Amino acid sequence: MIITASRRTDIPxxxxxWFANRIKEGYVLARxxxxxxxxxxxxxxxxxxxxxxFVTKNPAKMLDKLGLLENFNFLFQYTLNPYDPDxxxxxxTLDARIDLFIELSKRIGKKKTIWRYDPIALSEKISPEFHIxxxxxxxxxxxxxxxxxxxxxxxxxxxxxxxxAKAGVRAPDEREMRTIAAGISSSAESSGIQVATCxxxxxxxxxxxxHGKCVDNELVSELFxxxxxxxxxxxxxxxxxxxxxxxxxxxxxxxxxxxxxYANFSPKLIKKNISxxxxxxxxxxxxxDGSEKIFDSGIKERAGQLPLF
Length: 309
Hints:
Layout: E1 2-5, H1 11-14, H2 16-25, E2 27-31, E3 38-43, E4 51-56, E5 74-79, H3 94-108, E6 113-120, H4 128-142, E7 148-153, H5 158-167, H6 174-190, E8 194-198, E9 210-212, H7 217-224, E10 246-247, H8 267-276, E11 293-296
Parallel strand pairs: 1-4, 1-10, 3-11, 4-5, 5-6, 6-7, 7-8, 8-9
Antiparallel strand pairs: 2-3
């Protein structure tokens, strides 16, 4: 079983105390995002969890909790983008986040600290050259602190379409994608960083950029010397190749409020959900009230079957 924490919200940034309590209690409850009364109980035991994949823009509050994970396999996917606060809100400065990345890498190792440069978007202020220049700057700073970078080009989801259009933000066309890929490939190579795309149909092999996946069972197997869970999730995007995992986050709960985010689509619901969060609850949002239909994970061994959603 691979756990993602989370592609729906930033658990390390905003819910680290809750996550620490879940580790201590040995289980977590996760709602089905489409059928909220259906809840999965996931047992958090090192012998049952292949890997926990943290997806974050700011892991500062997780640093003092890494000791709780000493018996677990885990890695971090750390997003470092150079956008201004109009695009990514409420974040520390880029240099502060780079310093934090380096500190995290020192603590857990560069192989387990993966850089995400994602999503790549364009506007009147954001050109292909902007990305080439800033990617090179970040890659130079991260030299020796990571070996892998995942990139993707922005998808204009329905939930973010209006926000992006109002700000004049768009996806690159194929020519612009290739220009960006050529530029970042050179600086990545000089910094010893391998670049792969996530959920992209475009072939960038000529630039040394392969097709990749953010939930990567092959990487998990390589890092931790064990056979990780196989099978695919129902794709979140057309070309998604991610291995099967279970996400313990919830939509409309992330306080970064990034302009391009697909997981936040209702300001009212975000406010309501945040007010319902309890650090001691097995659910990220709210408390179980007895109306839930709880499915026990029922795992007998590593890579066992889970109710998927």
